[in-house]
Amino acid sequence: MLTITELTKTYGTKDAVQRASLQVDKPTMIGIIGRSGAGKSTLLRMLNRLTDATSGAVTFEGRPITALTGADRRKWQSECAMIFQQFNLVPRMDVVSNVLHGTLNKRSTLATLFNLYPDADVHRAIDILDRLGIAEHAPKRAEALSGGQQQRVAIARALMQNPKIILADEPIASLDPMNAQVVMQSLRRIHEEDGRMVIANLHTLDTARRYCDRVVGMRDGRIVFDGTPEQLTTGVARDIYGADASFSEAATSTQIDTLERETA
Amino acid sequence: MRRGLQFVFGGTMAELTATGDSRQGIEAAYMAQMRHKRILNLIGILIFAALLIGGFQAADNRNAGGFWDGLPNVLDFPGDVLSEAWERSQLLPGYFIKYLPSLLETINIAAAATLIGALIAFCMALLATRGLAPAPWLIAPVRRTLDILRAVPEIVIALVLIFLLGGGPVPAMIAIALHTIGALGKLFSEVNENASLQPVEGLQSTGASWMQRMLLGVVPQVAPNYLSYALLRFEINIRASAILGFVGAGGIGYDLRNTMSWGQGKFDEAAAIFLLLFATIVIVDQLSGVARNRLTHGKAFADKGAVI
Prior knowledge:
Chain A is an alpha/beta fold. In chain A, 36% of the residues lie in helices and 23% in strands. The interface between A and B is medium-sized, with 31 and 29 residues.
């Protein structure tokens, strides 16, 4: 389904991503873990074509993604939704308009400039917001919402694109534990109910273990681990993060019950 | 679900959907709001179009000549200048050298005016920014002063000063500097308003004085914007200082006035002066881009391979 072959991105003399290869055969929920600067974001951005690869190739269902240009490239971006750490919504526009931005690829610039979306799209946008439990915020400005709510608006925008893949770049890194849980569960549910592929950069191991079917570890731009959550032992995690024996998962956990477990 | 995962919302869509009534209500309210906005937009566009068409007709009626009759002649003057310059294009390099000294004088007037104006504008901007000003009662008077400095055209100030001080570059420099204070003071204070107060608060918590908070907390945030506004103003001032040459302030404007008058057959020299001014603006623009990027991102940014 999705094949990444020797994908490389070089900034100046530094390799952000080095010859990364990955094969995904069916819609899976994949978590990518690794230190800051390990190349996780760059990898996701290359999949969406926000960033151009220096070399290597991505193919999706036989389509050469890295070779697309112009309108074809934007078409791909509409099929491959992206969710960001800082939500990347338009703060001064209302929630439904932000969600409707998911259809921009299908609409003319002039129509969208005057906010002329088909009623059916507006209904669908509100349906999606309802599904994510934030329909009552529909008419508010995006900036008036809390971080967790904004991230769910971002997910709604992604769903509005009706994408085959959802890429999530540190979707819960700016959220408190409760909201982080809601957002991760929404992503998991989208994967299970809609059968969409979800690839999420995560910076906490327990999140990756808990929600993902497959975990990919990156270190210094290379993929150093690729396996099931069960195979991700503390020893492997130490290797991925380049940490020593003092490394403890509980210290960075976002799970509310972690501390209790530690003290118990 | 794997590993007994418990989802807050439960499993299926039906369970998640809020009670049907409230969802319908939300949707109806939003659709009504959207229709309302669309109607307002439409009315706005219609009013704008009506004003545009009506305003054009009113202006055209008051024109001494007809707009449409004059329109085909608009390109006559540039056409004359270009054709004369083209015929004697081999003379252009000589003119460049001939007019270089007066170009330098013009740039000098603009540079001195920008520098002095920007320094004073910097101080006044800090006094005129809500949240930063040390004395809130000073904000309004300082702002009005800036308004006055902006409102008076520099050519008026220059004419008065030339009358008092005699012709030459100094009155022009003062006139442009005064206008620059007004313009940059306003822009700088708007930049200041967008600066984050968090670093300022951080410094205040260490016991820093007002001056320290401004110089160390605000300036590093706003310096790139200050610089790019000041350089933009420098460009505008080069043009202003060229125009003041028309009224006896010296520099390239004086030469431009002499060569540009109709019927002297000096349009080739006028073209050379235009080219010199154009080149100067391009060079200043390019330099400001480089300087601004360096200041915003630091040298490390370029070393990381960023395209500047």
